[in-house]
Every structure is written in structure tokens, then in C-alpha cells.
Design goal:
By secondary structure, this protein is of the alpha/beta class. The chain contains 27 helices and 24 strands. Helix 24 packs across helix 25.
Length: 703
């Protein structure tokens, strides 16, 4: 017997009253073990349009709805609710195998009846309609059920398409959305990973339909008690089980070398990376001694990913996936080999720079910021250690041009800074990364990692990628790199090809945003319009085709008269969200600086609201109550139903100190792009609504 569970069932289970959840869970466990057990009695839903739907009694209050086609061994849990509500749900659903795609689809009986009532027009009479130029066979091939073709034909514009969303299966709606956006049918099939030729599927073979990639977006076959327990322990974490066909293909792709995945915010890059890590240790490198390194730039994001992998992988698999940010990995690696240098931190670093800048020739007219940026963007990325190397080093992307004599004149500053670091037994992290790589290469150290998975790849430096290349020996499935330069909030830039990582023919892009509404996405994307954004490999990346399939309220910008007024607004707005049904833990107030975060905390305290600060090296523990408060840097990788960007004032967004660090026009523009990216990241954490508030002179980014 085959037992499966739908995503709808898991969502319904999460809403079961706590006093009944234990009883419901016991039923589900019994049902998985034997859906034909004597204590389970099936009652046909008399008013249902689908004769294969049955009601099963759980207790006096709750009923489960089971899809069980006659003369099959398939049992599908589809819904759980109070008695009357469960029956009402079943009466409105119809289950069909799409004969053109082979996917198991759940249709609304009301939508089918409405489609039957649509007047039928001859092909020659179709002069209007959003999809008038699309043939019926193409609509069917894209997943539109035969019953709903009249409904699709009647759609006049994108507004009506949005209104029809609940009536159309998800994969068909996505295809229609892409058609409406200007994609041709061939491009839609390619983007959604659909076969270019129709699939001749048996409409009565429901078991086979469950193996279809589109079916796997909403149904999962439960094979054992452990798997079931993991599902029920976190029924809202649907990302662990249900993947888009394109995501699923990227997870299981067999690559002859490094693989790069780009995608805008909310497209599921991190989810793909985590599933990829699981796939590698489970299928590609299953030996007990095989290990996978999962790394990212920031410590807090690595912590969040490790916590999520706990829910995705069992203890045995997780024990073979090492999740750590790269700087921490380097520190641990070097300490184990007697490395005598320690990382230098900001305060001491600034002191050493002040000492070195005393050697700066005043006649050059170069600012102190120039030296810091020359070090960060020319000398360190290229590993320059001597004047002769500096004289030959390319300075592409630097706004201030300098000749040979000027290079000779300024070199003593860099030599002195390096000398002071060495005297104190200090190194910058990029030096430690370089030292680790050189140690691996010179001593031919064999590390246990079969592959490396990199998340938030846009924040890694060139030296970091050279190390990553050295960690995993070149070979099939060795490197899996995901990122988006639109979200680069640190200064590092790298070209993979120049770091020994060849991704030619092994690069894909995710375009569908599953988190953010289209209104929030448009607002955020506009922040970076006109900015040249790289693709991590020397080319340019645009956001063509990047779209959200959900809609919601427009991003609101509130300009208050004073700090006190904003304090009152923040408390009032949060209370309004909670009154409308939002959970406090699903709301986050984001600030550009620590001072803004303190202001937000004061506002919540003034409104007598509980708060929880998401700090640098801790996960966002959703079991802890309270409105979330965090810096823009800290929310990277997180998501919330509602986001409020506080104190979006001039000099704060963009942060005046960050802009003033630009030594010339090019550096200043790069700094501004980074500030825009930071606001882009903050806004795209929101799933349902985003609000920006400030007082006095507002940020120039807000137009």
C-alpha cells in the first residue's frame, strides 16, 4: 500500500487546535502504518464531485479527508478539519491526472462548473483575451487542465489572471504568468523544466502520477515512521519536502565540474543549496568517510543554515556536512597546524593604518581613504607583496589613476602597514585565507571533503574562491555555488574563472520569487535600476524574467515629523498588524545601524510590546516570543511576513560614513550601490507587507 500526504494536509494539520493535535497525530501514524486497519472507517462524501474522496473519523470533533481511487492501493491524506469544514472542503475538490503532463492536480469543483458555463467560441471568433494567440494544445501542454481551458480563454488581462490564481493548478498558473509577461511557449517550457513534447499519461494511474515532478510540488509519499515524524514536527516548513521542478533538477544535477546558480531574492537559492548538500552525502558521496563542506561568508548565516539542515537531514547525514563560515574554517584549519598569527580587528587595525599613513607623501594629494581602498581592491586581492609586483598590478575599476612614480611613492605606506601587522603577530582574514590555501597546495594536504557548497557567493573574495578551489579536488560535482550580486552587501568581488573555477556550460538561473509579493519586488528592484551588476564570472546579470507570482499591498513610505512621531508610528503599526492576525514573531523592524535598532526597541517598549533582538551569532529562534528587531546585515537569509524599515533618513540610508569612505567617484558609486543592495535585501525579507518609515529629511533612495 502507498500512503501519501499533500501540502494542504500539512497546512491544515498546523491549524488543528492544540487540544486535539495529539489525537490527530496518533491517527496519522496509525494511518501510515496501515490505512486499512480495522479501526479506520471510510465514509463517502455524498455531495462531493469526486467519488474517490472519503471522510475518516479521528475523534468527536475532527475528520480527515482521504483520496482513495477504487481498486488501487493508494491512500492520500488531503485535508483535516472540524467535521463540517472537512466535508465542505471535500465537496469542493476534484482530483485529476492531467493526460498531457502526467501530474496529479487538485481542481476546484466550483471552478470546473464555472468553466462549463463559459460560452464556447469557435477559434476564428477569438479576437480578444490575454491568451488568444496561444493554441489549446499549448495550454494543455503547459499544464492547464482540459476542464479549465474555457476559463483561461475568458481571461482578458493580467488582473483577471491574478483573480483566477486559486482556480488554476500552480504549474499551469506559472506558465500562464510567463506567457502574459511576454515569454513564448518554448521559453516557458524551458524555464519550467517541462518536456518539449506532450506526455501521454494514463488518467487513471494515480500512483504513477505521484512520481511526476509537478506532483512532487504538493504530494509526498511517506515511506516510514521517521519520515512522517519529521513532517509532523514542522508542518509549515514545506521547503523541506516540496520543491519546484527546476529546483529539484538543480538539486540532483550530475555536473562534470563546478556549478553556479544565480537567482533574485526569494527564488529559493539557499533551499536548493541545502537540498544539494543532502543529495550529495546521501546519493553522490555516500561513504561513511565522505564529507561535504557547506560554507558562506557570515557567521550568523552559517548558524541559520545549520539549524535548517537539522530539520532536513537526519543525524547521520548531518554529521557528514560541515556547516561553517569560511573565516571560521580557516582559523580552525590554521590553528591545527601551529599557525602563529591571529586575526586583526577593527580598533587595532585602524591604529596600524594611522601609523602607516604617517609615511604617505603629502605631495601626492591622495586621501587616506585612497590607501585603504587601494589595499582592499588591488594589493590584497592580487596578493601583492613587493614593489615590483605592485608596479605591474592591474588597477581595473579604480577611479583614481596613478602612474609608476606615484606607485613608488605610496608603496612605503603599504609596506609599513604589513610590517606592523607582522610585528604584532597579526593578519587580516584575507591573508589567513591565502596562507591556508598556500599551505594546502605546498604540502599537498588531502582534506576529507568530496565537495563544497557555497551560499551567498556574491560576498566571497577572489582569495576565498582560490581556497575553495583548493579544498575540494577537481572532479564531478565538486563545487556548487549559489548567489546574487544584487544582494552584495560586502565589498568583495570575484570572477570565478580567474580563480580557477570553470563554470562554462554549468550555470543556471532561478527567476520565480516564491517569497515576496510583486509589489515589494518591484519596489526593491527599482533601487538597483541602472546599476551594472555582475554575474560572479565576469559578465553582467540582469533581472529579466525575475517575477513574483503573488500580490499584496504596495510598499508604504511614512515620513514623520520627528523621532517621537516615528516612535509612536512604529508601535501603532505593529499593533495594527497584530490586530489583523499577524503573529508577533512574523514581524521584524529593521535598522541600518545599531542606533536605529535601539530606537526601534525603545518604540516597542513604549508600546508595551514584547521584542526579540536577532543578534549577530545567534539563530532567529521562532519559539521565542516577541517582535523581531535586527540590523539590515543580520536579516540576510531570513524571512518574515511583515518588514518595517525604520529611520530611513538621509545620512542613514545611505549611511553617510559608508559613502564618505569612497576615495573617488568610482568608489563612491560602488559604495552607494552597496547601500542600495542593503535596502534591497531588507525589503525582500518580507512575504506579505513592507513599510518604510523615517522622520525629517528622508533617504534619497526613496525617490
Amino acid at each position: 500500500m502507498k500512503v501519501a500526504i499533500s501540502d494542504d494536509f500539512l497546512l491544515a494539520f498546523s491549524n488543528v487546535q492544540k487540544t486535539h493535535q495529539k489525537k490527530v497525530r496518533e491517527f496519522i501514524e496509525l494511518f501510515r502504518e496501515n490505512p486499512e486497519a480495522g479501526g479506520i472507517q471510510y465514509h463517502p462524501v455524498k455531495k462531493a464531485r469526486d467519488p474517490n474522496l472519503y471522510s475518516v473519523r479521528i475523534d468527536q470533533a475532527y475528520r480527515a479527508i482521504v483520496f482513495h481511487p477504487a481498486d488501487t492501493d493508494l491512500y492520500l491524506l488531503t485535508w483535516v478539519d472540524h467535521h463540517d469544514e472537512a466535508y465542505a472542503w471535500a465537496e469542493r475538490k476534484v482530483f485529476r491526472v492531467n493526460p498531457m503532463t502526467g501530474a496529479l492536480q487538485v481542481l476546484s469543483a466550483d471552478a470546473v462548473e464555472a468553466a462549463e458555463a463559459v460560452p464556447k467560441k469557435a477559434p476564428a471568433a477569438r479576437k480578444v483575451g490575454l491568451f488568444r494567440k496561444v493554441k489549446d494544445e499549448i495550454l494543455l501542454q503547459l499544464g492547464v487542465p482540459t476542464e479549465l481551458v474555457p476559463t483561461v480563454r475568458a481571461i482578458e488581462d493580467e488582473t483577471e489572471l491574478e483573480e483566477s490564481r486559486e482556480a488554476i493548478p500552480q504549474e499551469a498558473y506559472e506558465a500562464l504568468y510567463l506567457l502574459a509577461a511576454g515569454y513564448d511557449a518554448e521559453a516557458v517550457l524551458r524555464e519550467l523544466e517541462k518536456p518539449t513534447e506532450p506526455v501521454a499519461a494514463d488518467p487513471t494511474d494515480f500512483a504513477a502520477a505521484l512520481q511526476n515532478d509537478d506532483s512532487k510540488r504538493r504530494f509526498v509519499v511517506v515511506s516510514d515512521a521517521k519520515e512522517l515524524a519529521e513532517l509532523l514536527n514542522a508542518p509549515l516548513d514545506l521547503w523541506r519536502v516540496f520543491l519546484h521542478p527546476k529546483q529539484r533538477k538543480l538539486v540532483s544535477v550530475s555536473a562534470n565540474g563546478p556549478y553556479r546558480v544565480l537567482g533574485g531574492a526569494g527564488t529559493g537559492k539557499t533551499v536548493v543549496a541545502m537540498h544539494r548538500a543532502k543529495h550529495l552525502v546521501e546519493t553522490v558521496f555516500p561513504a561513511r568517510g565522505d564529507r561535504i563542506l557547506f560554507t558562506t561568508f557570515t557567521r550568523n548565516l552559517a548558524t541559520d543554515i545549520h539549524e535548517n539542515l537539522k530539520t532536513l537531514c537526519g543525524p547521520e547525514l548531518l554529521s557528514r556536512i560541515e556547516v561553517v563560515n569560511l573565516d571560521a574554517w580557516v582559523s580552525n584549519f590554521l590553528k591545527g597546524r601551529g599557525y602563529r598569527f591571529e586575526p586583526v580587528f577593527d580598533e587595532e587595525n585602524n591604529e596600524l593604518w594611522e601609523n602607516a599613513l604617517a609615511l604617505a607623501p603629502p605631495e601626492s594629494g591622495l586621501s587616506h581613504e585612497f590607501y585603504r581602498q587601494e589595499w582592499d581592491e588591488v594589493i590584497q586581492p592580487q596578493g601583492v607583496s613587493a614593489l615590483e609586483e605592485y608596479l605591474k598590478a592591474p588597477r581595473l575599476g579604480r577611479g583614481t589613476k596613478i602612474g609608476r612614480r606615484t606607485r613608488e611613492a605610496v608603496w612605503p605606506v603599504f609596506r609599513e602597514y604589513r610590517s606592523q601587522l607582522t610585528e604584532r603577530g597579526k593578519r587580516e582574514y584575507i591573508d589567513m585565507i591565502r596562507d591556508a590555501r598556500q599551505l594546502i597546495e605546498k604540502q599537498s594536504i588531502r582534506l576529507p571533503y568530496k565537495a563544497v557548497v557555497v551560499d551567498e557567493a556574491q560576498d566571497m573574495s577572489a582569495e576565498a574562491y582560490r581556497l575553495i578551489r583548493a579544498i575540494a579536488s577537481p572532479g564531478p560535482n565538486d563545487l556548487f555555488i549559489v548567489g546574487d550580486a544584487h544582494q552584495r552587501i560586502y565589498r568583495h568581488r570575484a570572477t570565478l574563472g580567474k580563480c580557477g573555477i570553470d563554470i562554462r556550460g554549468r550555470a543556471r538561473k532561478l527567476r520565480l520569487n516564491y517569497r515576496t509579493t510583486d509589489e515589494i519586488r518591484r519596489f526593491a528592484v527599482a533601487l538597483l535600476e541602472g546599476r551594472a551588476i555582475d554575474d560572479l564570472d565576469g559578465g553582467l546579470d540582469d533581472q529579466q524574467g525575475y517575477m513574483s507570482l503573488t500580490h499584496g499591498p504596495k510598499v508604504e513610505v511614512h515620513r514623520l515629523k520627528s523621532l517621537a512621531d516615528e516612535t509612536a508610528f512604529l508601535g501603532r503599526h505593529v499593533k495594527e498588524l497584530i490586530s489583523a492576525g499577524a503573529a508577533p514573531e512574523s514581524i521584524c523592524i529593521v535598522g541600518r545601524t545599531k542606533n536605529v535598532v535601539e530606537h526601534a526597541k525603545d518604540a516597542l517598549r513604549t508600546a508595551s510590546l514584547d521584542l526579540y533582538e536577532v543578534k549577530r551569532e545567534a539563530t532567529d529562534n521562532r519559539t521565542r516570543p516577541g517582535i523581531r528587531v535586527a540590523t539590515m546585515h543580520r536579516v540576510k537569509g531570513l524571512e518574515f511576513d511583515h518588514v518595517i524599515v525604520a529611520s530611513a533618513n538621509d545620512k542613514v540610508i545611505p549611511f553617510d560614513k559608508a559613502l564618505k569612505a569612497g576615495a573617488d567617484q568610482v568608489a563612491a558609486r560602488n559604495a552607494e550601490t552597496g547601500e542600495r543592495a542593503l535596502l534591497y535585501v531588507a525589503l525582500t525579507r518580507a512575504k506579505k507587507s513592507a513599510v518604510v518609515s523615517g522622520w525629517g529629511a528622508m533617504s534619497p533612495f526613496l525617490g
